[in-house]
Write a structure and sequence with these properties.
Length: 134
Amino acid sequence: MEPLSALKNRPKSSTPQITRNAKIFKTIIQAIQDKKGENIISLDLRKIHEAATDFFIICEANNTTQLKAIADYVEFEVKTKCAEWAYKSEGKSAAQWLLIDYINIVVHIMHPESRKFYQLEEMWSDADTKIHDL
């Protein structure tokens, strides 16, 4: 077994390692884009102590059918590609704002009117924001 001091001198791998959360994150973004979700953003909440999760992913759907299609496809893709099931999902009956909770990543799929009303981006304005439109 190598001493710990030898590990410092070991060359670092040039291939970046993708974490489980990063794979889920990328799969969610791609699934939303595949179903033509609009105004896709992510909020990095890791530096906010009050936050109950690491990331919010927020997008819009123009109608109820698209809203449900995006949610179903996100769950299918994450299950298929990452072997991860949603901890909880809510809002499918009202279909104005669907939420899919993967513990460290929470997905919000909203009608434009609901998004304007609840203003999640404003509520978490101190989070780092990234736009993911095509």
